[in-house]
Amino acid sequence: MAQFLLYRHSITSPWEGEAEHVYDFSFSDCKDLFELSAIVPRYAKLGETVVLRCNHTVVENQLYKVQWTKSGDKLFQYIRGRVPPYINHTIPGAKIDWGQTKPSELALMDVQHDASGQYACTVTLESPIYSKTSEYHDLTVIKIQNIDPTIEIFKEVFSVGDMLDATCTSGPSKPVPEITWLVNGRRPPDTYMKPIVKAALDSASAMRLTFPVSDKLGAEVQLTCLSTIPGFLNHKADYHDYADYRSSSIIGNYWVKI
């Protein structure tokens, strides 16, 4: 989309010897003036320090301002040539780590749940006067689980055709973790898993598994309960791919009684 660009120049007044700003207009296509993206961690643990990075291709002498916003509200501005160069607004749920903060990087320390939200950065050129805003990215501050999930199985010996009935309960966290069952390392269909709502759990979750016992399971059966943030990704993911990961397993060769 073609737009008007505003160019700013400084000249010296012959009468007073002071710099004046002169603006020129031109008609041009703005969309490819520079590349811009915001790098925001998807999750952060309670109390951690996170660094938000505003990646752009603007050279230093053309950069006028970098601004961070959260859900549309101004948080922080860097203005080149200003003394001091930084303007910070209220940052709910965090403090600025000035030791790690740079013109295009905002470091937030001791993050709390109120720091969760959508973040974006805006870059403004010196000349032509043009601003561009990145896409918004979610940051969620989590309180991780401090215990592994517990598995309760209601019957230990089964015959082919019986329904295996078990419940998994996570440890408390915020947000509430998601539970996934694995039977011999594979995720069963959703129809066999049902969330359990228990008000007394307080930031914990529970999931019931009812699974038909079959001779195809083999002589040894392994039940695994995963309690994770985010929810189950895929069978190739390991614990490094999750912001919070806890698991418990029961292995036995006594479940299938033919």
TrEMBL record:
Q: Which InterPro entries match?
A: Ig-like_dom, Ig-like_dom_sf, Ig-like_fold, Ig_sub
Protein name in UniProt: Ig-like domain-containing protein
Gene3D superfamilies, per the entry: Immunoglobulins
Question: Where does this protein come from, organism-wise?
Answer: Macrosiphum euphorbiae
Q: Origin, by domain of life? A: Eukaryota
Looking at the record, the residues that make up the Ig-like domain are 47-131, 149-225
